[in-house]
Amino acid sequence: MKTILPLHAALFAETPRVLLSNDAFSVELFRYPSGIEAVKLINSRGTVTVLPFYGQMVWDASFDGHTLTMGSGFKQPLPGKDIVDTYGCFAFHSGLLANGCPSPQDSHPLHGEMACTRMDSAWIELEEGALTLRGEVEYIKGFGHRYRAEPAVTLLAGRPRLRMTMAVTNLSGNPMPLQYMCHMNYAWVAGGHFSQSIPEGAFRLRTSVPAHVRPTPQWQAYTRQLAEKPEGFDGLHRPEMCDPEIVFFADDLPQYGEQVTFSLTSPQGYGFSTTFDTAQFSHATRWLLHNADQQVAAFVLPATCRPEGYLAAERAGTLLTLAPGESRQFEVETGLTEA
After folding, report:
1. What pTM was computed for the model?
2. What is the pLDDT of residues 177-196, one digit of tens each?
3. Distance from C-alpha of 291 to C-alpha of 243, rounded to nearest angstrom
4. Fewest CB atoms within 10 Å of the CB: 117, 144, 250, 336?
């Protein structure tokens, strides 16, 4: 049996209120001082805080006392039109018409229009063993594209993991471009190391330099070494070498199997992992940044293409197209690594 609880802006106040509670789950609603609504999904292992009407970002997540979320100067989500206005969340939906870092010739915002979009509706679904926050928004432009996006976040009973999904349907009478990345900004784990089910040599260093990156001589020397030998990257032992950011790409993931897993393990023994199907996500990005303002070890960002903007995907032949009425679905499972 499925229980559905609609969410409305009037339900949210600065004082948290419990919407539901049972032996496996509880749900709290509250509003940040910035005015943005939030839903806290709770199970026996931890909490996931989602912004139901603000791009359905996952603002924060923690399990068994370990935070999954990047370090940043943002103490709360802030209203904005682009993701840079509120870049402190654990995860957001990058896309859908374009994603990644725009080139000077691109016209789209950083990581696309979906990240900060105002959702039309949101609701809670409670089933046996699963608690899900769903949302829906219709994007429409005169003389432009029209689509329906349906994101969801699911918390599982007794497990330190969550599922993020996205479904997108082309509602217009014309073909629609599609670029999508599940952008998970994981916490920096000092001394942590990476592992994955694909070969180590599958990752290649990004050699282009986006406009927001300001290279230093030290960084340029280090990245020249990594460009020649990417497998020489020694994990999260030297944070000073990840300022500015270090980015790796892995392409054509279906060649490595139907499903892939990527992990970040701490010296203390706990770790994070992410699993997804390569038929949905054919590319992976690894993004590392450590400075006074941001500390992030995004050990994998599953995507349909490299995050280098619309025109780069078009040139590379990785830009997807949805026919009128066509839909695509994406799903990622992530969280603490389980034995």
Report:
1. 0.96
2. 999 999 999 999 999 999 99
3. 6
4. 144
